[in-house]
Design goal:
The protein is mainly α. It has a domain at 41-91. 46% of the residues lie in helices and 0% in strands. The chain has 5 helices and no strands. It is extended, with a radius of gyration of 23 Å. Residues 1-79 form the Insertion element IS402-like domain. This is Transposase. It comes from Streptomyces corchorusii.
Length: 128
Protein backbone atom coordinates (compact mmCIF):
# COMPACT_ATOMS: atom_id res chain seq x y z
CA UNK A 1 0.00 0.00 0.00
CA UNK A 2 1.38 3.37 -0.98
CA UNK A 3 2.14 6.03 1.61
CA UNK A 4 -0.25 8.41 -0.14
CA UNK A 5 -3.15 5.97 0.16
CA UNK A 6 -2.29 5.22 3.78
CA UNK A 7 -2.33 8.95 4.59
CA UNK A 8 -5.93 9.08 3.37
CA UNK A 9 -7.01 5.94 5.23
CA UNK A 10 -5.30 6.36 8.60
CA UNK A 11 -7.39 9.31 9.89
CA UNK A 12 -10.57 7.29 9.27
CA UNK A 13 -9.55 4.43 11.55
CA UNK A 14 -10.73 4.53 15.17
CA UNK A 15 -8.09 4.99 17.86
CA UNK A 16 -7.84 2.33 20.54
CA UNK A 17 -6.59 3.26 23.98
CA UNK A 18 -4.46 0.70 25.76
CA UNK A 19 -5.24 -0.05 29.35
CA UNK A 20 -2.76 1.44 31.79
CA UNK A 21 -2.92 -1.51 34.15
CA UNK A 22 -2.47 -4.91 32.48
CA UNK A 23 -2.09 -3.49 28.97
CA UNK A 24 -1.51 -6.90 27.41
CA UNK A 25 0.27 -7.46 24.16
CA UNK A 26 0.85 -4.50 21.86
CA UNK A 27 -1.63 -4.57 18.98
CA UNK A 28 -0.32 -4.89 15.46
CA UNK A 29 -0.13 -1.63 13.55
CA UNK A 30 -3.31 -0.85 11.61
CA UNK A 31 -1.43 -0.58 8.32
CA UNK A 32 -0.15 -4.16 8.55
CA UNK A 33 -3.59 -5.47 9.50
CA UNK A 34 -5.24 -3.56 6.65
CA UNK A 35 -2.77 -5.14 4.23
CA UNK A 36 -3.72 -8.55 5.66
CA UNK A 37 -7.42 -7.81 5.20
CA UNK A 38 -6.84 -6.72 1.61
CA UNK A 39 -4.70 -9.80 0.95
CA UNK A 40 -7.45 -12.15 2.16
CA UNK A 41 -10.15 -10.31 0.21
CA UNK A 42 -8.01 -10.19 -2.94
CA UNK A 43 -6.86 -13.81 -2.90
CA UNK A 44 -10.19 -15.17 -1.60
CA UNK A 45 -8.47 -17.44 0.91
CA UNK A 46 -10.00 -18.31 4.25
CA UNK A 47 -8.99 -16.11 7.18
CA UNK A 48 -7.37 -19.02 8.98
CA UNK A 49 -5.01 -19.64 6.05
CA UNK A 50 -3.48 -16.15 6.03
CA UNK A 51 0.28 -16.86 6.07
CA UNK A 52 1.90 -15.41 9.19
CA UNK A 53 5.17 -15.13 7.28
CA UNK A 54 3.74 -12.14 5.40
CA UNK A 55 3.74 -10.10 8.62
CA UNK A 56 0.04 -9.26 8.62
CA UNK A 57 -0.71 -11.07 11.86
CA UNK A 58 -3.12 -13.95 12.18
CA UNK A 59 -6.25 -14.26 10.12
CA UNK A 60 -8.35 -13.94 13.28
CA UNK A 61 -6.65 -10.64 14.16
CA UNK A 62 -7.40 -9.30 10.69
CA UNK A 63 -10.97 -10.55 10.81
CA UNK A 64 -11.62 -8.95 14.21
CA UNK A 65 -10.18 -5.63 13.06
CA UNK A 66 -12.31 -5.84 9.89
CA UNK A 67 -15.39 -6.43 12.04
CA UNK A 68 -14.56 -3.55 14.40
CA UNK A 69 -13.88 -1.15 11.55
CA UNK A 70 -17.09 -2.20 9.83
CA UNK A 71 -19.10 -1.50 13.00
CA UNK A 72 -17.37 1.89 13.30
CA UNK A 73 -18.42 2.84 9.74
CA UNK A 74 -14.86 3.03 8.42
CA UNK A 75 -15.60 1.41 5.06
CA UNK A 76 -18.47 3.78 4.20
CA UNK A 77 -16.36 6.83 5.10
CA UNK A 78 -13.39 5.44 3.17
CA UNK A 79 -15.58 4.91 0.12
CA UNK A 80 -16.86 8.49 0.32
CA UNK A 81 -13.37 9.97 0.80
CA UNK A 82 -11.85 8.04 -2.09
CA UNK A 83 -14.75 8.87 -4.42
CA UNK A 84 -14.54 12.55 -3.48
CA UNK A 85 -10.79 12.55 -4.13
CA UNK A 86 -11.18 10.88 -7.51
CA UNK A 87 -14.00 13.22 -8.44
CA UNK A 88 -11.92 16.28 -7.45
CA UNK A 89 -9.10 15.03 -9.66
CA UNK A 90 -11.61 14.44 -12.48
CA UNK A 91 -10.69 10.76 -12.68
CA UNK A 92 -14.26 9.45 -12.56
CA UNK A 93 -16.18 8.75 -15.74
CA UNK A 94 -19.76 9.50 -14.67
CA UNK A 95 -21.07 8.37 -18.07
CA UNK A 96 -20.39 4.79 -16.91
CA UNK A 97 -22.28 5.28 -13.64
CA UNK A 98 -25.08 2.86 -12.77
CA UNK A 99 -27.81 3.55 -10.24
CA UNK A 100 -28.67 0.50 -8.17
CA UNK A 101 -32.43 0.14 -7.68
CA UNK A 102 -32.41 -0.42 -3.87
CA UNK A 103 -30.94 3.07 -3.50
CA UNK A 104 -33.58 4.78 -5.66
CA UNK A 105 -36.82 5.87 -4.03
CA UNK A 106 -39.87 4.23 -5.59
CA UNK A 107 -42.52 6.33 -7.28
CA UNK A 108 -45.22 7.39 -4.90
CA UNK A 109 -47.90 4.74 -4.67
CA UNK A 110 -46.07 2.29 -6.92
CA UNK A 111 -45.04 0.01 -4.10
CA UNK A 112 -48.45 0.03 -2.43
CA UNK A 113 -50.25 -0.79 -5.72
CA UNK A 114 -47.86 -3.67 -6.37
CA UNK A 115 -48.42 -4.95 -2.83
CA UNK A 116 -52.21 -4.84 -3.26
CA UNK A 117 -51.96 -6.82 -6.50
CA UNK A 118 -49.66 -9.39 -4.93
CA UNK A 119 -51.72 -9.87 -1.76
CA UNK A 120 -55.19 -9.45 -3.26
CA UNK A 121 -55.90 -6.54 -0.89
CA UNK A 122 -57.74 -3.50 -2.08
CA UNK A 123 -60.95 -3.03 -4.03
CA UNK A 124 -62.50 -6.05 -5.70
CA UNK A 125 -62.15 -6.16 -9.46
CA UNK A 126 -65.17 -4.93 -11.45
CA UNK A 127 -66.97 -8.00 -12.88
CA UNK A 128 -69.91 -6.32 -14.63
Amino acid sequence: MSDELWERIEPLLPRRERRFRYPGRKPLPDRQVLCGILYVLHTDIQWEYLPKELGFGSGMTCWRRLRDWNEAGVWQRLHEVLLAGLNAERQLDWSRCVVDSPHVRALKGGASRARRRATGAGPAPNTT
